[in-house]
Amino acid sequence: MVFPGQTAGRLMASAGGSSADGSGPLILSRNELLALLRRVFEALYGKTCDYEAMAEQILWLECHGLGGLDLLHDCLARLDGEERHADRHLLGAFLTKGPTIRFDAGGASLIGFGDLLADVLIARCAGGEIRQAEIADLRDARAILPQLHRMALAGRFAAVRISGRGNGADRFARVSASSPLPDLSGWEGAVDCAEQASLHLVCAGSEEGLRSAMRDLHPDWPEPAVTADQLAGTYRGSLNNGVKVRDLAALHAIADRVLVEATEESRRGAGE
Predict the structure, then answer these.
(1) pLDDT tens digits, residue range 55-91?
(2) CA 39 to each of CA 89, 120, 263: distance values in angstroms, whole numbers, following the listed order
(3) Which of 91, 127, 154, 260 is 20 to 30 A from 177 via CA?
(4) Strands 197-204 and 130-138
């Protein structure tokens, strides 16, 4: 599956194997890639954020054919800059009372706080309620897709509308507790989600509640262009065949800042 922001040329280049200097593509298993991504985000964020959750987001996107590594490479310089610690200044917005969490992200990356957003909405829908989040001036909105999956696995029903800046091209996705992988609509040809966008997310405790909320998101919800079944097939392929990783040297350059990966064993050895 070729995802917006991921060109066919890139995919074709992956077939050539790995270069000697590690700059070319290399096939990694899911677990190998996850370990590398954990080290990358640990190096970037340290203990200021849940780097394991960030790694899981990128892995989920990549293994489902949704351009997780392309997204990471596109935003890596920004995440490696001074802005990377600003994402969680938004925590206070999650304490907002009422059915809707509404705030301006100020250009922050959803990779840094998407897990918290999902956790809050999951908890607030525990009694079957409908809860929403409206976030403006957001980057890396594609990272909402693995959070939709988490919501569905927690027994929730969720839908999202992502709007790019001023071009009228919206993207839609929805999940249900009975079908936890998302159906995607309108993603082809839209602005890349690494650019600044706005996001309207709905989480409900029932299918009926979600249908009602979806009418408010968009009166004529488009048919899916990418289905949950397609995503499931792509994921099975990544498990069986591994994941082709390009620009491996760039990831290792950041990951190698972490001398010892943070594990229970390393913490015991450090006296924590």
Answers:
(1) 999 999 999 999 999 999 988 888 876 455 445 556 6
(2) 23, 26, 11
(3) 91
(4) antiparallel
Note the pLDDT tens digit of each residue in 196-222.
889 999 999 999 999 888 887 887 888
Q: How many CB atoms lie within 10 A of CB 144?
A: 27
230, 236 contact by CB (below 8 A): no
In the chain, the DSSP E strands lie at 26-28, 100-104, 130-138, 157-164, 170-176, 179-185, 197-204, 243-245
Considering the chain, what percentage of its residues have pLDDT values greater than 70? Answer: 78
How many Cα atoms are found within 13 Å in the side-chain-facing hemisphere of 67? 23
Q: Which residues pair with 245 in a beta bridge?
A: 26
Give the whole-angstrom CA distance, residue 166 versus residue 183. Answer: 24
Checking DSSP bridges between strand 197-204 and strand 157-164, what pairing results, if any? antiparallel
pTM, two decimal places: 0.82
Q: What is the model's pLDDT at position 166?
A: 56
